Amino acid sequence: MAIAPTNPVSSLVQSLGEIPPDAVVFGRSSVMQAVRERLDKVAGANVPVLIQGESGTGKDIIARMIHSFSPWKSGPYVKVNCPAIPGTLLESELFGYEKGAFTGAYGMKPGRVEMAHRGTLFLDEISELDLALQSKLLQLLQDGQFCRIGAQEDKKVEVRIVCATNRVLETEIENGTFRQDLFYRINVVNLRLPALRERRGDIEDLAQYFLEYYNRKYNCRARALSSDLMAILQKYHWPGNIRELENLIKRYVILGNEDVITTDLVSREQEYFNPEINLDGPISLKKLTRQAVRELERKVILKVLQANHWNRKQAARALSISYRALLYKIRDAGLPANGSSRRRAEPMPNQGAAAD
Ligand SMILES: Nc1ncnc2c1ncn2[C@@H]1O[C@H](COP(=O)(O)OP(=O)(O)OP(=O)(O)O)[C@@H](O)[C@H]1O
Ligand SMILES: [Mg+2]
Question: What are the structural domains, with CATH classification, of the chain?
Answer without folding.
Answer: 8-194 (3.40.50.300), 198-272 (1.10.8.60), 283-356 (1.10.10)
